[in-house]
């Protein structure tokens, strides 16, 4: 495929959590780099969402648990034929480094923002639709008028406790995605289903399709079976309809 679009379906809650966190981290980074006041508003919106996510669950414990599980499974591959010993050692070292960094990180992740009246007021107003206007929060309007460098420094300071979590999230998902082998398959009449080998702890289904085909997939299922059903979005003004055509795509089932 000259162009492709990949859709992912997590098969349990931990993976769902990490995918959400990965997407929010990416939005924060992109908006921060742009530097315009409006983009820094979006960076702060993403940061508020990130802190809401990581304070609702023990994200450090979830990541450490996933790294430990991956490490055990990777260790079983150590003596397999064709394993690159140097690359394997680098992988294990990276896993240990991030696990130790998460374990050593003391205190709550939100300690930098918890004591900030400014951040708290912005977070409260953002819970309302359009709640961060200048007449709601004059101090926020004033902050957005500050130089780019000043806003960037503050946003980075607030994100700093999340750096290790963001790095560990990216690494865990990278190894997870690379654990699967993509294969070409076809959804006949727009529908595909497959049973999963229960001997493996499946975590993620990835479907890659050429957007020029004019269809998108809806993936559903669990650890034993999944289905992929393709739809035609049309002009996005009316309800999508099932795609009753054969759709070639690449399928990757991930388990590590």
TrEMBL record:
Biological role stated in the UniProt entry: Cell division factor that enhances FtsZ-ring assembly. Directly interacts with FtsZ and promotes bundling of FtsZ protofilaments, with a reduction in FtsZ GTPase activity.
| Annotated Gene3D superfamilies | YacF-like, YacF-like domains
Q: Where in the cell is it found?
A: Cytoplasm
Q: Which residue windows are coiled coil?
A: 60-105
Q: Kindly give the PANTHER family that the UniProt entry links to this protein.
A: CELL DIVISION PROTEIN ZAPD
- Protein family (similarity comment): Belongs to the ZapD family.
- Describe its assembly: Interacts with FtsZ.
Ranked from the top, the taxonomy reads: Bacteria, Pseudomonadati, Pseudomonadota, Gammaproteobacteria, Chromatiales
GO BP field: division septum assembly; FtsZ-dependent cytokinesis
Name this protein carries in UniProt: Cell division protein ZapD
């Amino acid at each position: 495929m000259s162009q492709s679009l990949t859709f992912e379906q997590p098969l349990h809650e931990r993976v769902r959590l990490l995918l959400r966190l990965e997407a929010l981290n990416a939005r924060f980074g992109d908006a921060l780099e742009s530097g315009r006041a409006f983009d820094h508003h979006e960076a702060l919106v993403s940061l508020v969402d990130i802190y809401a996510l990581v304070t609702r669950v023990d994200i450090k414990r979830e990541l450490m648990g996933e790294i430990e599980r991956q490490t055990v499974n990777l260790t079983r591959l150590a003596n397999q034929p064709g394993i690159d010993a140097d690359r394997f050692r680098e992988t294990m070292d990276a896993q240990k480094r991030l696990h130790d960094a998460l374990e050593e990180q003391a205190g709550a992740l939100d300690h930098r923002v918890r004591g900030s009246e400014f951040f708290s007021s912005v977070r409260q107003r953002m819970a309302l639709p359009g709640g961060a206007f200048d007449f709601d929060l004059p101090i926020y309007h004033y902050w957005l008028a500050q130089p780019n460098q000043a806003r960037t420094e503050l946003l980075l300071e607030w994100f700093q406790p999340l750096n290790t979590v963001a790095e560990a999230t990216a690494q865990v998902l990278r190894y997870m995605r690379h654990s699967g082998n993509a294969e070409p398959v076809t959804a006949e009449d727009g529908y595909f289903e497959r049973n999963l080998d229960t001997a493996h702890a499946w975590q993620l289904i990835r479907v890659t399709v050429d957007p020029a085909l004019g269809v998108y997939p809806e993936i559903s299922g669990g650890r034993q079976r999944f289905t992929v059903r393709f739809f035609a979005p049309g002009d996005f003004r009316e309800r999508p309809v099932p795609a009753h055509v054969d759709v070639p795509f690449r399928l990757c089932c991930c388990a590590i």
